[in-house]
Write a structure and sequence with these properties.
Elements: H1 3-37, E1 49-53, E2 59-66, E3 69-76, E4 79-82, H2 92-103, E5 104-111, E6 127-133, E7 136-146, E8 153-157, E9 163-166, H3 169-174, E10 195-200, E11 203-209, E12 224-230, E13 233-238, H4 241-252, E14 258-261, H5 266-271, E15 279-285, E16 288-298, E17 301-306, E18 312-316, H6 317-324, H7 328-331, E19 344-351, E20 354-362, E21 368-372, E22 375-376, H8 379-390, E23 394-397, E24 409-415, E25 422-431, E26 434-438, E27 445-448, H9 449-460
Antiparallel strand pairs: 1-5, 2-3, 2-6, 3-4, 5-9, 6-7, 7-8, 8-9, 10-11, 10-15, 11-12, 12-13, 14-18, 15-16, 16-17, 17-18, 19-20, 19-24, 20-21, 21-22, 23-27, 24-25, 25-26, 26-27
Helix pairs in contact: 8-9
Length: 464
Amino acid sequence: MGKEETQIMKRATRMLILAAVLVVVIIGYVAITRLTAEDSAEGVGGSDVTVFSVNTATVTELSWEYDEEEILLKKVGGTWQYSGDSAFPLSMAKVNTMLTAISEVKASRSIEDIAALSEYGLDDPTYKIRISSDNGPLVTCSIGDKNEITGDYYLIIDDRQTVYMVDGNLPDAFGNTLMDIVERETVPDVSSAETLIISTPHSDNKIVYKSSHSGITYTNAYKWFYEFDVDGNKGYAPLGMLKVNKLQNQIKGIVWQDCVEYNATDEALKTYGLDEPRVTVTAKLPSGDFTLMLGDFEGERCYAKTGNSGIVYTISTETADSLAAVDFESLRADDVCLMEWNTVDSMEILVDGKTRTIYFERSEEGDVSYLVDGYPGESEKVDKFLRSINAMTTIDQTDKPSPFSEPEVKIVFHRNTEYFHTMVLSLYLYDSQSYLVEFDGQSRLLVGIDDVGRLKEAFGALNE
């Protein structure tokens, strides 16, 4: 085959490929055009068609069929009620959404020549809605399939032969089962509570707020404490502020996923594990106690209820597990040293075998100056050293002692307080990356080698 013939064949092949692509494009265009055209016999001019409008002030009954449920709401004495139970906790927000949706319903287009209702999902509609007043029915309509191209829904008024295409407002407003229209209880903001109790069948974790730390801990930086019972007496241990704040946010941020019952009996509560809850959270608020109970798991859901309410909800298992895991260890403070320097009169410091003594001298006006080993110290250098102590942060914790018996850093604080008058902070080399902290009766926290390095550097600069 010659060169010229080869080129001719290549051109012919390319033309065939282009022709095939063109055919596919044309077919796709025709299909889309037919899909949209068949739904746009009328109302194509760009202006919406009003399907119906209702004076919602005259509406006294709303009923709908959805998800194999038929629900009827009645307006009795100016108040909306569920017809099946006048005590049903009906969400007025849901009712108002439905009333707003029916006040005026417009269609983007209408279809007059209906071959079969089944083409639009209207032979077995997803929704059937009936709106009535004291004088009788106002509107009865059905909603079928969703048009996947336009996003509209097919709707028909039962006594007409026209199919309309409407937006999602109406189906969204009436796409509710009975449990969807329950007025859900509000979880309060528990940040104003001064006591939180997380109880399980095996323990009570009592978390209390104390405005004064006197006699409990060495610094007023702690406000939340874990309450222990020690031989009939109450004891307290400081808790991490951020950890307690996270717990508060978890409680007030609880999201009800579903409502499964609105008036559960004692027998029904057993089926949800709420007769003997696995976790009970109690927040003592100025307005009264708020109680949350967590029951059994079902898949990724945990059954929950509040107080004496008969409404049973589900919440996420992640939230339930987090609350169930609350104990002293999960909340205890991990701060290294939060010394209040206005309570310190002097410090004896040992760093790598070198010693310094710092005295705090305060004027009547409240100004502070320092003596370092009996000589005036530079305030900027001393302040940097003090900041390096409070700036140490925890990188980990351990239950094993340091392999070294002598501390590299030891600071003795002499304070002008009634309690915790003398305190000792010791830092032991633990491994190549950390030091073990011994302070305030604890020896479990590890700080990074960089933090200790900055402390040593500030110490070395005190008498330069």
